[in-house]
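tool=predict chain=A
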Amino acid sequence: MASTARPNPLPQLTAILVSSALLVPPFSVAAQNCGWSRVDHRVAYDASGAWNPSVYRSVVGALTIAEVGGAVWEGAETDISKTS
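tool=predict ok
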């Protein structure tokens, strides 16, 4: 019986590890400096329009009343009233 010698995988494994170690830092630096990283910025406080707390509370109250009113209007047997 002839013995079959298996090739040593160490040189290939070493080459893969070295090449991946050399490629990872540029990719991480590029990911940190992509266009999306410039999206976040400081915004001045704005309490006008829908962001005004009293307007927000009024809208939430009106939606709650509309939801309860819709459930009462539809009755107890419809799917919409059961969802509401």
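The chain is about 60% helix and 0% strand. The mean pLDDT is 79.
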